[in-house]
Specification:
With 398 residues, this protein is an alpha+beta fold. It is 52% helix and 20% strand. Strands 2-1-5-4-3 form a 5-stranded antiparallel β-sheet, sandwiched between helices. A 5-stranded mixed β-sheet has the order 6-7-8-10-9, with helices on one face. The chain starts with 7 loop residues before the first helix and ends in a 19-residue tail after the last helix.
Length: 398
Amino acid sequence: MSATVPSPHDSLALVAELEQVRARFAAIVSNTPGLVYQFVLHADGQVSFPYLSDGCQALLGLTTAELHATPQRFLDLILPEDRQSYQDAMRASAAAQWSWNWEGRIWVDAWKDVKWINLRSTPHMLADGAVRWDGIMTNITDSKLEQMEVRHSRARLAELSAHTDRVKEQERTRIAREIHDELGGNLTAIKMAVAMLAARLEHGAAEPALRDKTDYVDQLVDRTIEAIHRISLDLRPPLLDLGLVAALEWQVKEFDKQTGIPTSFSANQRDIGLDTDQATALFRIAQEALTNIAKHAHATKVSVKLARLRHHVSLKISDNGAGIAQADRSKPASFGLRGMAERARALGGTLTLSHASGGGTVVAIKIKQEIKPDTAQDRLMPPAAGATIAEENISAAK
């Protein structure tokens, strides 16, 4: 049985169709930003570029002929510190037959400049054991520089925020001490003088109205002293000077007393290992979390747990209230949550919000920190009144 020989007319039609396909492909490639390529990793470890589009020289500073002749020159373009990640990504893609997506820096000698490139390609296993990738390389320098600028801007903003918080706390401390020392001392002297005046009026024939006025001034001084004490505590609790554990114990008791919500506190160490600025920032986060609970949670029970672990410090505030909806977390005016997150980031840590089991919310803060091994004295910390000592490590919110 003889094979069918295509007629000259059919051959011409096939050639015309092939040329049309090639023209379409060339048009698509010429209008594709970047470099369209085929790359082959041979079984003996050698590499080659069977196909390179005209974008080769514009992207890599090499002509297609140069890269065809010496494929190794592409690896030489990659900065030494980025070559290992390039080769690792290539081997992983070849082994698993999944897409190869890599970005890194190259040195373009023609322009004496560094470029960021991204390559995306799909692997195909060949019959001889080689792997061929079909893909595209693009110049992502502008977008990478923009990303880096955004990161730098955020870092500078975080530094400014942290500095502002430190200055604010220093000013709070100064004002609190001046109020306590200056105004407190003056009011104490006024109270003593009023007491002496009242004693003399008791022994003399003073009018009742004058004695009433003296009693009123004495009561007014007492109320003012109480107000000064409260304002000083709000500005900066003196217990922060004794450490974070003491300050949180006090804050939890105050929250319990003011809101009527049963609130427990536990800590697994006496010395949490934070400096004054870190302890103050963590205390402010706890204050803000408790304020949010009082305003919005409708909770009937709250717990605050502090733990010093091997590589980080953990603070977890949990309630059994209504919880926080996702829409509430992303509100533009959610400055309380944003402030808490910013303080945590400034400490080199993270803040997460999650749903508590049985309802409510868990605010978990983790601060990475290398801490020296505990001393026996630390481990034998006695529980304070109204507080319990956690017997297990506090885990971060899931």
